[in-house]
Design goal:
Layout lengths: L4 E6 L4 E8 L3 E9 L1 H5 L6 H23 L6 E9 L3 H18 L3 E5 H12 L7 E6 L4 E8 L2 E7 L5 H11 L6 H9 L24 H16 L6 H27 L3 E5 L6 H13 L3 E3 L3 H4 L3 H13 L21
Parallel strand pairs: 1-4, 4-5, 6-9, 9-10
Antiparallel strand pairs: 1-2, 2-3, 6-7, 7-8
Helix pairs in contact: 2-3, 4-11, 5-6, 5-7, 6-8, 8-9
Bound molecules: 5'-O-[(R)-(carboxyoxy)(hydroxy)phosphoryl]adenosine and zinc ion.
Length: 340
């Protein structure tokens, strides 16, 4: 039986989620109320609508998380909440709720960074995993290579200079006429296509760079589609999707392996919504094995936004003695503080 139960709360984008995690590794409950159906008719997340949806659902998901875990508030040692980065109105709902629970029930509260939460999902999936390792956090808003030197000690090894990989998936999916959220829909379409059909560019950037850029690839796909339309030819969309996906996956995998080599670590991990892409997972697994690196990735439900990962990261903040005050704010932009 775990000693320390953490109740996590996540509302940074379009999932309202609460979860109870024991000793940072045991998921007792994970409740996710997705707003996908609400935002789909707008073709993407509408921030104001997201905030209102979070408000409607937040107390329900917290109650459900406790019920599913079979625990009362009196068993909770600590509350953990995502404070940024994300949609400010959405974050504020989670932060305000967490502060209210903390104040009313006298339970300490810790602030969690959304990217560190994604990274920490790997500890839930692999209880034996220990730092150091290099993690590619690849989501709708971020594409970052982070070295976790020790718990809560981060070094940023690379990041995107323009679009995040998930953003590129979503934008190209929209161009291909696919519904929101674009990533999973594009992956499905790509399954019936040839990844070598169209040689879309890979942005390797300067020799040895571990930064990313996806805007050139996005333009290349749009130019390709426009050229075919001007010629009066219909593109074979599964080939376009598969070739686009292959171009993104190649760059993500090779740059992560390069970053691990440069950092001198033998373990690589994957996190964030795009990490649920099966082609990315398979390619990563194969290339990591070829390079002699251990490869870790969370199960799909822990890749997209969820509060279990927040509770996991929160547990380490709790152990480190970090505490949020009632003046805790939410931050739309919030850099992950590197260690000295
Ligand atoms: O981590 P996440 O749930 O939210 C953010 O923090 O952004 O990631 C959402 C992103 C979206 O861009 C979505 O299209 C992408 O992850 N995504 C995928 C897949 N599933 C989700 N991208 C590619 N393939 C997938 N299977
Ligand atoms: Zn996320």
């Amino acid at each position: 039986m775990p000693d320390t139960w953490v109740l996590g709360i996540e509302t940074s984008c379009d999932e309202t989620s609460a979860a109870v995690v024991g000793d940072g590794r045991v998921i007792a409950s994970s409740v996710i109320s997705s707003q996908i159906a609400v935002h789909r008719r707008f073709g993407g997340v509408v921030p104001e609508v997201a905030s209102r949806q979070h408000l409607d659902r937040i107390t329900f998901v917290v109650d459900e998380a406790l019920k599913e875990a079979g625990l009362g508030f009196s068993s909770i040692s600590c509350l953990a909440v995502t404070v940024g980065p994300g949609l400010i109105g959405a974050l504020l709902v989670g932060v305000a709720a967490a502060k209210a629970y903390s104040y009313a029930l006298k339970i300490p509260l810790v602030p969690v960074h959304h990217l560190e939460a994604h990274l920490y999902a790997n500890f839930l999936a692999h209880p034996e995993l220990e730092p150091p390792f290099v993690c590619l956090v690849v989501s709708g808003g971020h594409t970052s290579l982070i070295l976790l030197q020790d718990h809560l000690k981060y070094r940023l090894l690379g990041a995107t200079r323009d679009d995040a990989a998930g953003e590129a998936f979503d934008k190209i999916a929209r161009v291909l006429g696919l519904p929101y959220p674009g990533g999973p829909a594009l992956e499905e379409l790509a399954a019936g296509g040839d990844p070598c059909a169209i040689p879309f560019p890979r942005a390797w950037l300067e020799e040895g760079s571990t930064d990313f850029s996806f805007s050139g690839l996005k333009t290349a796909v749009m130019n390709y589609l426009n050229r075919l339309r001007e010629e009066g030819t219909s593109p074979y969309l599964p080939d376009v999707a598969a070739s686009f996906q292959a171009a993104i996956v190649d760059v993500l995998v090779e740059k992560t392996l390069l970053a691990a080599k440069k950092a001198g670590v033998g373990k690589v991990a994957l996190a964030g919504g795009v990490a649920s892409n099966s082609t990315l997972r398979r390619h990563f697994e194969k290339r990591a094995a070829e390079e002699g690196l251990d490869f870790y990735f969370p199960e799909k439900r822990l890749c997209t936004d969820n509060a279990a990962m927040v509770a996991c990261a929160g547990y380490y903040h709790y152990l480190a003695g970090h505490r949020a005050s009632l003046a805790q704010e939410a931050f739309a932009h919030y850099p992950l503080v590197p260690c000295e």
